[in-house]
Amino acid sequence: MLIKVKTLTGKEIELDIEPTDKVDRIKEKVEEKEGIPPAQQRLIFSGKQMAEDKTAAEYKIVGGSVLHLVLALRWFVKFISIELKWYVYTNKGKFFGAIRFCYYHLFRFWLIVFIMDF
């Protein structure tokens, strides 16, 4: 049976699938046509994300059904740590201090953590 997979850009991909095909097999067919790895694909049908271990028949997909393809973006975290240390000598002894700045780049925002040790 022929189904359509619609991307967020509006492009429609026609696929020939069987009712017994699992979702992971449908993702492989999308990869063959579009070059998008299955790990980056999320298929949506009737407003629900499709689980990879279920078949097209379990989702009641019939000829002419439209699946929606959403790309799964991976989040990343960058971490930078800067530490400044100093010693102060007085007549009462040696004192130590440190300031540590930790920068986390998370979800397109920088989070700054300021830690001071004495």
TrEMBL record:
PROSITE patterns: UBIQUITIN_1, UBIQUITIN_2. This is Ubiquitin-like protein NEDD8. Pfam families: ubiquitin (PF00240). Keywords: Membrane, Transmembrane, Transmembrane helix, Ubl conjugation pathway. The chain crosses the membrane at residues 98-116. Belongs to the ubiquitin family. Residues 1-71 form the Ubiquitin-like domain. InterPro entries: Nedd8-like, Ubiquitin-like_dom, Ubiquitin-like_domsf, Ubiquitin_CS, Ubiquitin_dom, Ubiquitin_ubiquitin-like. It comes from Strongyloides ratti.
